[in-house]
């Protein structure tokens, strides 16, 4: 199969893999740095795209299982540097005849080994720039990537096929590892042209001091997911009881923050806590904040609707009810837009004089990195 065709297939599959990766990536970046660098994200997604392309180039085209079952070709080639002997024996290259040079380059005995080197050059570049790997680690990880490719071929795509449909070649291990090594050295001049990953992370940490609407929405969604999961587990394993579910919600939002430095589990994971305007821990204002949220967004709308339902006149009830429902929906819509898409404080925040504060700092991140390096 033509290399360009394989890359087209990889491009079609890339959005699917990117979608699976996006949510864990967002949560991890906000947990570590309080935000996401656009340039860093672009580089990471390019790395994923590269891996997909490389993998597809190794496994495609996929033959029919019936065809593979009939194969009698060798499964392994375990003689190191056998590609050199193949080139010498089978290539049309004649050193004394310059007209054979172009022809020899176009033959598989030449472009096959060259392709195996080129295949992992980007891997070496990414390892050095993105993951700060030194020379030894680059060689080691390049070898592991090549070994993964070769075992994929040897096992017949993880035993989907009755036998291997491509050759397990020790020369590929050598050439792929060499490609990663070349990528490591080639990357040096290019790395100087773009900001380092460390500088991008530091810039993100500085920006994280301001709690954006997206970060607030992420915390809100994570907390809601945890609560709904707990309620679901209770329904499945204990009992479907509204009072037990309400108790779980109360414990999660009111009790747990008292023991987690004013943070819920979601806020703790995403490095956010609730402080007063002087950035002090204030339990009374924390409780007031949560009570105001419940009153403004839950109790008042419910009480309003219940009052409307008790109106005896059908015409007045329907007319006033429609107006009230529209006003409530507009209020919720405006609140959602304000909370999720702006940095403005909410009504319950102004009254309780509390705010969300990022707990991420450059010093804490560096300490964490130092501990990980010591391990």
Rg, nearest Å: 30 Å
DSSP summary: helix tally = 17
Low-confidence stretches: none
Q: Note the run of SSEs as H and E.
A: HHHEHHHHHEHHHHHEHHHEH
Tell me how many strands there are.
Answer: 4
Distance between the termini: 45 Å
| Range of strand content | under 5%
Helix content: over 70%
Broad structural category: mainly alpha
Global mean pLDDT? 89
Shape: elongated
Please state how the strands of the largest beta sheet are arranged side by side: 1-2
Biggest pleated-sheet summary: 2 strands, parallel
List the helices and strands and how they pair.
Blueprint: H1 3-33, H2 38-59, H3 65-69, E1 76-77, H4 82-90, H5 99-105, H6 108-130, H7 135-154, H8 156-159, E2 168-169, H9 170-191, H10 197-207, H11 213-237, H12 242-259, H13 265-269, E3 272-276, H14 283-309, H15 314-341, H16 347-352, E4 354-358, H17 362-374
Parallel strand pairs: 1-2
Antiparallel strand pairs: 3-4
């Amino acid at each position: 199969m033509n290399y360009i065709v394989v890359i087209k297939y990889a491009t079609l599959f890339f959005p699917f893999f990117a979608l699976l990766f996006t949510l864990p990536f967002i949560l991890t970046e906000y947990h570590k740095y309080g935000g996401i660098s656009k340039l860093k994200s672009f580089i990471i997604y390019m790395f994923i795209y590269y891996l997909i392309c490389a993998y597809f180039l190794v496994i495609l085209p996929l033959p029919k299982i019936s065809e593979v079952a009939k194969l009698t070709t060798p499964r392994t080639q375990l003689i190191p540097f056998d590609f050199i002997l193949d080139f010498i024996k089978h290539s049309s290259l004649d050193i004394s005849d310059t007209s054979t040079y172009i022809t020899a380059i176009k033959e598989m005995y030449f472009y096959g080994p060259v392709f195996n080197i080129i295949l992992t050059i980007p891997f070496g570049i990414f390892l050095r720039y993105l993951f700060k790997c030194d020379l030894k680690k680059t060689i080691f990880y390049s070898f592991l990537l090549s070994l993964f490719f070769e075992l994929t071929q040897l096992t017949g795509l993880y035993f989907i096929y009755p036998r291997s449909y491509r050759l397990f070649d020790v020369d590929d291990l050598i050439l792929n590892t060499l490609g990663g090594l070349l990528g490591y050295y080639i990357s040096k001049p290019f790395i100087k042209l773009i900001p380092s990953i460390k500088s991008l992370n530091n810039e993100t940490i500085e920006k994280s001091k301001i709690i954006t609407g997206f970060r607030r929405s992420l915390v809100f969604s994570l907390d809601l997911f945890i609560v709904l999961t707990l309620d679901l587990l209770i329904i499945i394993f204990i009992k479907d009881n509204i009072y037990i579910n309400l108790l779980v919600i109360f414990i999660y939002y009111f009790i747990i923050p008292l023991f987690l430095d004013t943070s819920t589990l979601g806020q703790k994971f995403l490095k956010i806590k609730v402080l007063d305007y002087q950035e002090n821990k204030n339990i009374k204002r924390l409780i007031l904040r949560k009570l105001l949220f419940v009153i403004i967004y839950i109790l008042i709308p419910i009480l309003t609707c219940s009052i409307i339902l008790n109106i005896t006149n059908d015409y007045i009830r329907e007319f006033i009810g429609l107006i009230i429902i529209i006003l409530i929906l507009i209020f919720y819509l405006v609140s959602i837009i304000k909370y999720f898409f702006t940095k403005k404080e909410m009504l319950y925040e102004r009254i309780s004089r509390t705010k969300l504060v990022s707990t991420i700092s450059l010093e804490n991140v560096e300490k964490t990195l130092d501990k990980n390096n010591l391990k």
